[in-house]
Task: inverse folding
């Protein structure tokens, strides 16, 4: 497995774990009727910090385990995989954002709109990295 | 629609049992890309294909061939 494929796996798994916790907490707050009072801003900041620390730690670990692979620049196949994955992720992001815009027309509290937009961003990033993993393992 | 087949694995072994990593370093791609090319999972660019042929000292069409399906 190349360094870039390992990086993609780290991103997917860390996003699912860390943001999974965040959105589960958001869903709990919404279910409890706390949409107007829940301080999701501070939770979001902490979540992002935790994610960055986790990702940096894991990326450094795999870079130390395979320094030559980590230092090798992207080759033509990796650049092609990245471009194809970005195209797929863009479609997901576009559709998600349009959906949120449509729902925003019904004037929901900002809690829902902000978190829905953030979910769209997280989802597209997961899709981008998952697409890369799929292309690494199959024909590109 | 056809596929591009290649003789890279055989040529590697004929050239002093060259490893995929060694070939990758000579042509400027990763070992995983060389593996993908050999398995037919990736068709290299024209430039990369020429570099591979040059490593083995063979004309391009003796390393890669287009197979109609």
Result:
């Amino acid at each position: 497995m190349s360094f870039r494929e390992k990086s993609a796996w780290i991103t997917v798994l860390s996003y699912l774990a860390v943001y999974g916790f965040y959105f589960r907490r958001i869903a709990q707050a919404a279910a409890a009727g706390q949409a107007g009072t829940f301080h999701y801003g501070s939770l979001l900041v902490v979540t992002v910090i935790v994610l960055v620390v986790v990702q940096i730690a894991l990326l450094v670990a795999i870079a130390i385990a395979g320094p030559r692979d980590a230092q090798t620049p992207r080759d033509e196949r990796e650049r092609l995989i990245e471009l194809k994955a970005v195209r797929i992720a863009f479609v997901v992001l576009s559709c998600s954002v349009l959906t949120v815009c449509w729902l925003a027309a019904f004037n929901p509290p900002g809690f829902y709109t902000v978190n829905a937009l953030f979910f769209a961003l997280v989802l597209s990033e997961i899709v981008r990295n998952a697409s890369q993993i799929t292309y690494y393992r199959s024909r590109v | 629609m056809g596929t591009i087949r290649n003789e890279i694995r055989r040529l590697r072994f004929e050239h002093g049992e060259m490893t995929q990593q060694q070939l990758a370093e000579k042509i400027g791609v990763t070992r995983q890309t060389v593996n993908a090319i050999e398995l037919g999972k990736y068709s290299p660019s024209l430039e990369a294909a020429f570099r591979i042929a040059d490593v083995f000292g063979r004309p391009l069409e003796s390393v890669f061939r287009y197979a109609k399906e």
About this structure: The interface with chain A takes residues 28-33, 36, 40-42, 44-45, 48 of chain B (CB under 8 Å). The mean pLDDT of chain B is 93. The CA atoms of residues 20 and 35 of chain B lie 7 Å apart.
